[in-house]
Amino acid sequence: MNEDSNGRFDRLYADRTSGLRTSVTRELAASRRGPGMVSLAGGSPEMGAFVEDALRRMGSSVVRESATAFQYAPTEGTSAARGVVVEAMAAAGTPSRPEDVLVTNGGQQGLDLMGRVFLNEGDAVLVEAPTYYGALDAFAAYRPRVLGVPVDDEGMDIAEAREVLEAARRTGTRVKFVYTIPNFQNPTGVTMTLGRRRELLELAREYDLPILEDDAYAMLRYGGEPVPSLSALEQQETGGPERAAYLGTFSKIFSPGVRLGWVHAHPEILRRMRLAKQGADLGSSNLSQTVAVEFFRSGKWREHVRRLARIYGERRDAMLDSLAEFMPEGVSWTRPEGGFFVWVTLPEGVDASAMLPEAVGRGVAYVPGEDFYADGFGGKNHLRLSFSFAEPRLIWRGVRILASVVRDRMEIEGIVGRELRERAHARG
Ligand SMILES: Cc1ncc(COP(=O)(O)O)c(C=O)c1O
Fold first, then answer.
1. How many angstroms is it from 44 CA to the middle of ligand 1?
2. Which mutation among 108, 111, 114 tests ligand 1's pocket best, with the greatest number of atoms within 8 A of CB?
3. Mutate to test the pocket of ligand 1, among 111, 249, 340 (most ligand atoms within 8 A of CB)
4. 147 lines ligand 1 (CB under 6 A)
5. For ligand 1, is residue 189 a contact (CB within 6 Å)?
6. Can you tell me the distance from the alpha carbon of 15 to that of 8, in angstroms, rounded to the nearest whole number?
7. Is the Cβ atom of 372 under 6 angstroms away from ligand 1?
8. Tens-binned pLDDT, residue by residue, of the chain (428 aa)
9. Is the CB of 107 under 6 A from ligand 1?
10. How far is the CA of 18 from the centre of ligand 1 (A)?
11. Ligand 1 centroid vs 270 CA: distance in angstroms?
């Protein structure tokens, strides 16, 4: 029985809870952990001995600061934590000021606050399609219309975005903001080119829209050249944040367990977000902020991030090499310059959601593409692989198993035979 139907309190729940999403397949992928299982599903970061060691050493200093660390923190975050945010943003190439920063409970809360301060029911938000499902989940509570814009190997298709905005204008749909992940996008791994970033800023100016730039993977680059953030590009002209709000997180470069992220935005947006956050949780954990500040103050964090980038770079290479080695013809994938994810395209007609139980049964998990589309209609023949958590040896094993599952599916669907026939036909 569907847990949500004919429930005991159905007539009492707020309408907004009916918009909250769940995903059976995502849960299936996440639930199977343990020996023999290679999870290429979740985006959990590698912590490594370094963080554990640092945290152990930190213990005593946190106790020393217990008079404040165990107290409430200001809603906007401690000034020390906001100072660390400014340092982290500078290291990733985006200027900022502590007074323009709101410390949040992970980047995830920044997504929720954006929805909370901008979206009325029925308003629209423009997103990349596919996009991070956590953002779709966060926005869903405010019951918006989600307008998806396709992503190609240069990032969001800006010409298409313009058409979507035009159509919305014609039909009287109020678009409230654009959400984008320009670096190593979750789930495609694609990085938006400088040209597209400039075009997006121009488009947002034309339609007078704020942009939420989610830069969760900012510092995790393993190849290619850094591209200035939308926020940095805008600030070159305006001297401070205007319409480009920037979302960051300590989850990927330090620890997801401290639940710390931030939003850097125009003072008016930030003021509303601070009020919304005050109502939600009064403020982020002072203890977490103390721990994070200690870690970043030690100065060793740059070395830690370099080490992470080396580890993840090796894992990405293991994934790309094993895909090339094992995947049957007709399967393609992206080649990310950073972040955690590779986006795999299966031949038309191979359904990644339907294939998941078989893959999990044989010992490998992934997230089906459908989860990254708001309407659940896109992405059927896609899947997201994460290389962040498994060691190269396991990545090779997982991809080998996955490739055999894909090949079997292609055979069942008659795709392998058809392809061979077509190739033979092409050769004459
Ligand atoms: C693109 C993106 N944004 C935001 C988040 C939120 O992360 P957290 O709340 O741990 O900062 C994630 C986590 O995976 C992510 O991939």
1. 10
2. 108
3. 249
4. no
5. no
6. 16
7. no
8. 445 557 889 899 998 888 777 666 667 666 656 677 888 988 788 776 566 777 776 777 777 777 888 899 999 999 999 999 999 999 999 999 999 999 999 999 999 999 999 999 999 999 999 999 999 999 999 999 999 999 999 999 999 999 999 999 999 999 999 999 999 999 999 999 999 999 999 999 999 999 999 999 999 999 999 999 999 999 999 999 999 999 999 999 998 999 999 999 999 999 999 999 999 999 999 999 999 998 888 888 899 899 999 999 999 999 999 999 999 999 999 999 999 999 999 999 999 999 999 999 999 999 999 999 998 778 899 999 999 989 999 999 999 999 999 999 999 888 765 666 666 666 65
9. yes
10. 23
11. 20
User: Which residues contact residue 159 at a Cβ distance below 8 angstroms, ignoring those fewer than 6 apart?
Assistant: none
Q: What is the pTM of this model?
A: 0.94
CB of 78 closer than 6 A to ligand 1? no
Question: Which residue has its alpha carbon closest to ligand 1 atom 2?
Answer: 216
Report the candidate in 373, 353, 346 with the shortest Cα–Cα distance to residue 131: 373
